[in-house]
Amino acid sequence: MDPYKSKRLSLLSKSPYDPALGNRMKKQISLSRTKRYLPFVLIATLIVVLVAQVSWKRAEPWQPAQLLEPADLAATINTPDAKQPLIISIGPAATIKTSVGVGPAGEAENLAKLEKLLSKESKNRAIVIYCGCCPFKNCPNVRPAFTKLNEMGFKNHKLLNIAKNLKTDWIDKGYPVIE
Q1: β 67-68/127-130 pair status
Q2: Is the backbone of residue 54 left (phi > 0), alpha (psi -120 to 50) or beta?
């Protein structure tokens, strides 16, 4: 016979209102529930962490090295001997000197214009896209456009790193604009 069985039975037969016994039983029950669910909680936590990491890595279609600072683009435009990239406005207006506008890339017809424009270009062509309507972290145009360049297999494309908007980060700094 199980030597602990009689002790457990005697514990169960005692009144649950016995404070010392009641607290001890609550702790035993609570501990057994914790042990029972601990593996599930650990697995669920691991899954959440892994999903969060994968989502974070895929949150943006560009890599940090594919962000181009406005001062760097302005210097390239202002250097006549420099090889000039194809600069494409994917926002409401083409403002930067030498840029070509396709309209807001958040709209399907403008994304199709972008694809048509790029279909004639080499996959190694230096391309810079920008919008400037707002900080690109909130922009409805940069992600569809950059994703389209990725899908089309371009190897040398960048996103102009506009922290606030085109007026603040380009025009107010005296960088070259379309006359």
Answers
A1: unpaired
A2: alpha
3-state secondary structure of 41: helix
Q: Pseudo-torsion of CA 162, 163, 164, 169, nearest 10°?
A: -60
Q: How many CB atoms lie within 10 A of CB 37?
A: 11
Residues 23 and 47 grouped into a single domain = yes
Cα–Cα nearest to 92, from 147, 37, 131, 49: 131
Does 35 share its domain with 79? no
Mean pLDDT (whole number) for 6-11: 53
CA–chain centroid gap for 85, Å, is: 26
Amino acid occupying residue 128 = V
- Say if 178 falls within a structural domain: no
* 156, burial (CB in 10 Å: exposed 0-12, middle 13-18, buried 19+): middle
The answer to whether 145 touches 105, Cβ cutoff 8 Å, is yes
Instruction: Write down the pLDDT at residue 138.
Output: 86
In a domain, 36, yes or no: yes
Q: Which domain holds residue 163?
A: 64-173
Q: What is the pLDDT of residues 145-160, one digit of tens each?
A: 999 999 999 999 999 9
